[in-house]
Amino acid sequence: MNAERTVRRPDPPAVRWVGVAAISGAMFLLLTRQSAFRGWEAGLAALLNGIVGAPTKWTRGSDVFYVGIGTNKVFALQLVTGCSTALLIIPMLLLAGVYVHFGRVRLVHMMIGLLLSCAAMLTVNMIRLVVVGVYTVHSGRSGFELAHTIIGSLIVLAGGAATLLLFSRWISRASTVAADAPPIRARMKEGAQE
């Protein structure tokens, strides 16, 4: 199966700069508003833990949520920078900015890919946080250690790798460069001569 991929024209430079600015702005917000983002993630994790049967309590804006409410095993789980989905999203945004800047992928395709990938990364991290919450409620500190260090790490590694693989596949399918195109310098010279 050797289907020819259609080659899309790159976005005009002004569109690419707007895209790079938007992606850079998103990275800046994730870096500077890290605590607010973690608070939002903690709220979502508390909600999801409550749905699966790990009674929770969370205060709006806090990056701490409590699991095991109403039992004799109440634990506070705090989302620190290393536990945040932002840590997984920022490198993807950086890669996306580079691809958009050089016109390798049209902005609309990149934004769709980013939205899908960020949602997938968030889903993977929420699965990890739910597993940590449930194990903590059922097995206490030893459950937390097992779920946080081993099971949670495996979930994030597998889910993160799958998400990055799908994101890379999306970028390659939406590329503005033909499979048999010459190197970028040769294409830039051709563009300048036109």
What report would you give on this structure?
With 194 residues, the protein is mainly alpha-helical. The protein has one domain (13-187). The chain contains five helices and three strands. A three-stranded antiparallel sheet has the order 1-2-3. A hairpin with a 7-residue loop joins strand 2 (64-67) and strand 3. Helix 1 runs antiparallel to helix 3, helix 2 crosses helix 4 and helix 3 crosses helix 4 (107-173). The model has no long low-confidence stretch (mean pLDDT 85).
Task: State the distance separating the first and last CA atoms.
Answer: 35 Å
Number of helices: 5
Query: In what order do the strands lie side by side in the largest sheet?
Result: 1-2-3
Helix proportion = 55-70%
Biggest pleated-sheet summary? 3 strands, antiparallel
Q: Which structural category fits the helices and strands?
A: mainly alpha
Shape: elongated
- Specify Rg, calculated over alpha carbons: 21 Å
Low-confidence stretches: none
| Elements, N to C (H/E) | HHEEEHHH
How many separate domains? 1
Percent of sequence in beta strands: 5-15%
Number of strands: 3
pLDDT average, as an integer?
A: 85
Keywords:
single chain, 194 residues, mainly alpha, 3-stranded antiparallel beta sheet, 3 strands, 6% strand, elongated
Q: What secondary-structure arrangement, pairings included, does this model have?
A:
Layout: H1 13-32, H2 34-51, E1 56-58, E2 64-67, E3 75-78, H3 86-101, H4 107-173, H5 184-193
Antiparallel strand pairs: 1-2, 2-3
